[in-house]
């Protein structure tokens, strides 16, 4: 049995989608219609004022403020929830592999994993150590 079937843990990278005006295939909204954002710019949020969602918005233009929109801060959007779900699935897979590596490995390999964790290593460094242990375990299995 070859080691090519082993899939190492991949670092978490959030998926990004291009912004499309309408996901259902309808033509884009006309420019003369007022487009509402569900999140106001940072300055309007801070001042608790109505944001016109233009860039720069009317309030920021009036006050001479810098107008910055942060779409990722809107936690009501489905995209935010799907990003959180993807991140949770990633860490759940990582935890499952981490536990499997500890359960199925030799004491020396477990010590190496623990030392990597205790050294304050980043998640990607810990993933790398777990992947190498899992790969050694997978390749050292006797073939039937």
UniProtKB/TrEMBL annotation:
Looking up Gene3D superfamilies in the UniProt record yields:
Zn(2)-C6 fungal-type DNA-binding domain
Extract the InterPro entries matched here.
Answer: Notoamide_regulator, Zn2-C6_fun-type_DNA-bd_sf, Zn2Cys6_DnaBD
One of the entry's Gene Ontology molecular-function terms is: DNA binding
Q: Which residue ranges does the record assign to the Zn(2)-C6 fungal-type domain?
A: 40-69
Is Nucleus set as a keyword in this record? yes
Q: Which UniProt keywords apply?
A: DNA-binding, Nucleus, Transcription, Transcription regulation
Cross-referenced CDD domains: GAL4
Its domain of life reads: Eukaryota
Query: Pfam families per the record?
Result: Zn_clus (PF00172)
Quick check: keyword Acetylation in the entry? Answer: no
Q: What is this protein called?
A: Zn(2)-C6 fungal-type DNA-binding domain
């Amino acid at each position: 049995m070859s080691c090519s079937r082993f899939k190492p843990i991949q670092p978490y990278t959030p998926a990004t989608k291009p912004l499309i005006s309408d996901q259902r295939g309808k033509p884009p909204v006309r420019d003369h219609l007022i487009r509402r954002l569900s999140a106001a710019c940072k300055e309007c949020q801070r001042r608790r004022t109505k944001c016109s969602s233009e860039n720069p918005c009317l309030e920021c233009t009036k006050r001479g403020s810098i107008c910055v929109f942060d779409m990722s801060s809107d936690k009501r959007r489905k995209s935010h929830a799907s990003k959180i779900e993807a991140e949770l699935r990633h860490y759940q897979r990582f935890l499952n592999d981490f536990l499997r590596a500890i359960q199925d490995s030799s004491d020396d390999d477990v010590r190496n994993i623990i030392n990597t964790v205790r050294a304050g290593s980043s998640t990607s460094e810990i993933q790398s150590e777990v992947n190498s242990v899992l790969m050694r375990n997978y390749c050292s299995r006797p073939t039937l």
